[in-house]
Design goal:
seven-stranded parallel β-sheet; hydrolase; chromatin regulator; Ureohydrolase_dom_sf; binds zinc ion; alpha/beta; EC 3.5.1.98; about 400 residues; His_deacetylse_dom; Arginase, Chain A; about 40% helix
Length: about 400
């Protein structure tokens, strides 16, 4: 296979794919005073309060951003706002038949496991749900592109690893990972991509899309006893690690380190797509694993450290995990990566005061994070995660 082309494509289809990638607006520009964190205030889902009846923190993404902002680590102007993926962008991955099926609210109802959606007209599901997903898809493409420029990037969203070219499922409607990887391959910006998936679930969506593609190496650590149990998709997994609730934390982290270190030594990747779902957190009704918040933080640290040691760019996606405390754990983990010097977050400098009495007010000003790149941290900071 060459570029992002598929074996069955004729010349016209290849040309169309190439132009769709070249003309896409999903690759962002980033200013010198911005950090490669990708987020849009409209990531969050709200359905007139109906979303509260779903076991799902529909405001997870906004909460992660707000916490990082409160801690003085990012500002609205220092993060990158993604573009919404257009139908043309989505056709790089999806069949038009599948995209057309989403006009039926009942198809969305099944994918999102929210039966009331069946009663909604399309303009409602599109505006309040699908559009937000398309923004997060744009975020994933942006993060993968930015990682090549800045060595790391984080999309505070995305990671819809159950969606494939012709099907959605498990809250995932668009195949953002397949899209980002295929665009970069098509444009020859990368030759080989490593997908590291530590979400509790098997990443069967992009796996189905990459069956038989030697340019994509998939390391998937998941709980085999839960959804989706997709044995067809398993064919695409290059290194499969089964996790269960009895696995002690240190063995989990050891296994992650050993597997990833080996893979990075053997497979020369131009990019790591890190699907960092947090539904492996203790108490998650879907993931059914029992990792502590500290373990999740250590997990992300190991992956970023190994990426750095092997000089491989990494793009992180937040993927699954929708308990009320997931956002806090994700934000703490991103903060930890910053504290350890594995990523460099950036907030806007405080606005210069416009009056003549600076000295009276200076003591009230929060210190700029740029003045102290290594804020003090310790067990107190690391453990400041609410227990369920
Ligand atoms: Zn999951």
């Amino acid at each position: 296979m060459e570029g992002g082309f598929l074996p069955y494509m004729d010349d016209l289809e290849k040309q169309e794919l190439m132009w769709s990638c070249v003309e896409s607006n999903l690759f962002p520009s980033i200013a010198i005073d911005q950090c490669p964190v990708v987020f849009h205030p409209e990531y969050d889902i709200s359905f007139f309060g109906l979303e509260k009846y779903h076991p799902f923190d529909a405001g997870k993404w906004g909460t992660v951003f707000r916490l990082l902002e409160e801690w003085g680590l990012v500002s609205p102007t220092t993060v990158v706002h993604p573009e919404e993926a257009t139908r043309r962008d989505l056709l790089i991955v999806h069949t038009s038949r599948y995209l057309n099926s989403l006009y039926s609210p009942c198809v969305c109802a099944r994918i999102f496991e929210m039966n009331f959606l069946c009663l909604m007209p399309y303009f409602v599901t599109n505006k309040y749900l699908l559009r937000k997903m398309r923004l997060q898809v744009g975020g994933t493409v942006a993060a993968c592109r930015l990682a090549l420029e800045r060595n790391w990037a984080i999309n505070i969203g995305g990671g819809f690893h159950h969606a494939s070219s012709n099907a959605g499922g498990g809250f995932c409607v668009y195949a953002d990972i397949t899209l980002a990887v295929r665009m970069l391959l098509t444009l020859n910006l990368v030759k080989r991509v490593l997908i590291v998936d530590v979400d509790a679930h098997q990443g069967n969506g992009y796996e189905r899309d990459f069956i038989g593609d030697a340019r994509v190496f998939i390391l998937d650590m998941f709980n085999p006893k839960i959804y989706p149990k997709d044995s067809k998709a398993e064919e695409a997994i290059s290194r499969m690690v089964h996790i269960d609730a009895d696995m002690p934390t240190d063995r989990y982290l050891e296994s992650l380190f050993d597997n990833l270190d080996t893979v990075l030594g053997e497979f020369e990747a131009d990019l790591i797509v890190y699907n960092a779902g947090t539904d492996s957190l203790e108490g998650d009704p879907l993931g059914r694993l029992e990792l502590t918040p500290e373990c999740i933080m250590k997990r992300d640290e190991i992956v970023f450290q190994l990426a750095k040691d092997h000089a491989t760019p990494i793009a992180m996606l937040t993927s699954g995990g929708y308990q009320k405390n997931n956002a806090q754990v994700i934000a703490e983990s991103i903060k930890n990566l910053h504290t350890r010097g594995l990523i460099q977050l950036r907030a806007a400098p405080p606005k210069p005061a416009h009056h003549h009495h600076h000295h009276h007010h200076q003591q009230n000003q929060a210190p700029s994070p740029n003045q102290s790149p290594n804020p003090p941290t310790g067990p107190a900071t690391l453990l400041a995660v609410p227990k369920r």
